[in-house]
Amino acid sequence: MASVANHLMPGHQISPSHPALFGAIAPSNCSSPLDDSYRRTHGEVPSHPPVWKTVSLDESVKGFADIIYEKAVGEGIAKITINRPERRNAFRPQTVKELMRAFNDARDDISVGVIIFTGKGTEAFCSGGDQSFRGKNGYADYDNFGRLNVLDLQVQIRRLPKPVIAMVAGYAVGGGHVLHMVCDLTIAANNAVFGQTGPKVGSFDAGYGASIMSRLIGPKRAREMWYLSKFYTASEAEKMGLVNMVVPLEKLEQETVKWCREMLRNSPTAIRLCKSAINAADDGHAGLQALAGDATLMFYGTEEGNEGRSSYLQHKKPDFSKFPRLP
Ligand SMILES: CC(C)(COP(=O)(O)OP(=O)(O)OC[C@H]1O[C@@H](n2cnc3c(N)ncnc32)[C@H](O)[C@@H]1OP(=O)(O)O)[C@@H](O)C(=O)NCCC(=O)NCCSC(=O)c1cc(O)c2ccccc2c1O
User: Fold this and answer.
1) What sign does the dihedral 290-295-301-304 (CA atoms) show?
2) Has residue 280 got a pLDDT over 60?
3) Is the CB of 95 inside a 6 Å radius of any atom of ligand 1?
4) HSE toward the beta carbon, residue 199, CA cutoff 13 A
5) Which of 10, 44, 29, 62 lies closest to 254 in space, CA to CA?
6) CB within 8 A of 283, min separation 6: which ones?
7) What's the pLDDT score for residue 270?
8) Residue 134 burial by Cβ neighbours in a 10 Å radius (0-12, 13-18, 19+)
């Protein structure tokens, strides 16, 4: 509802330089001859604005204070918005707890196929940890001890078996920059600004903040980004491979939703496996575990998998001889 208006500002042109233009896959606003036959069969991706409905989780738990959680009516899109625009959407522990509840719900809801992660307003996606809550052992708000619970959120997004798209207007800096990097895709408005600030404010994220960045933009650029802690424009970030596409601010949500709808036409299982496979190489045992878990999930649906289970329950020997040893 209000969210489209939240991203309105005078327009600029879509950045023409997109690495994907040189490959087989073109961004969704470009008509590629490779897509023509697919589009003849499936038609254009609808461009009407979604109808967002606010989601309130478990009635016994207090409503969200720091985030807005919405789902598009009749479509498989969830939208999770950090709602602290007066602090440039900086997160405190409470914000992270709420985000984790919402992401968990979106994961569990089988009608949701893709999740948009964004910040309220046009000034910022997220400016990282709220420094006024930072103490000697992390960030502390309602209770008296510190924590770095955003690290758990990063892992949650990374392992979530559905695509998460960061929709970035304004600043994505510090821990907010790491959050967009752990998302599967990033669509940036042309007013977006990217960068790390840790070394300037006495902090650093040497976990995903360093390793995923290095993987995304290469070690030299990652060092530059961390050591100098400079800010980069949306088009610079796009050239570095930090973002998938830059669009005019007023088109940000429209384009992001278009990407969501396009993905929603495709096989959820194929996408799930692609996500876990792409992460597996970097995520070590945890990455392999996610990929292997997907394989088990699918195997349970086969006759061969069921032969073992039902034989066990019927106290008889399983007969696996009927299943081919495929080459
Ligand atoms: C983001 C900005 C560049 C925006 O600048 P702008 O000029 O547009 O706005 P203001 O500076 O005037 O900000 C408006 C208002 O918001 C307050 N604010 C903004 N960001 C934060 C913040 N992160 N924490 C607290 N408050 C914030 C600001 O003070 C203003 O309030 P007033 O009352 O004064 O009006 C610019 O705001 C900026 O540079 N912000 C700071 C960015 C930053 O350094 N972030 C923290 C990096 S460290 C981090 O995020 C982090 C978090 C973790 O949980 C970690 C966990 C584990 C390892 C590492 C972690 C980590 O590094």
Assistant:
1) negative
2) yes
3) no
4) 14
5) 29
6) 158, 290
7) 98
8) middle
Which pLDDT value is given to residue 3? 36
User: What domains can you pick out in the chain, each with its CATH number?
Assistant: 2-266 (3.90.226.10), 271-317 (1.10.12.10)
Closest CA to 69 of 123, 3, 155: 3
Structure tokens at 139: 């960030």
What global pTM score does this model have?
0.91
Distance (Å) from CA 6 to ligand 1 centroid: 21
Determine which residue's CA is closest to atom 6 belonging to ligand 1: 88
pLDDT level of residue 37 (50, 70, 90 thresholds): confident
192 Cα: distance to centroid of ligand 1 (angstroms): 15
Report whether residue 132 contacts ligand 1, using a CB cutoff of 6 Å: yes
Closest residue to atom 30 of ligand 1, CA basis? 87
Ligand 1 site, residue 197, Cβ cutoff 6 A:
yes
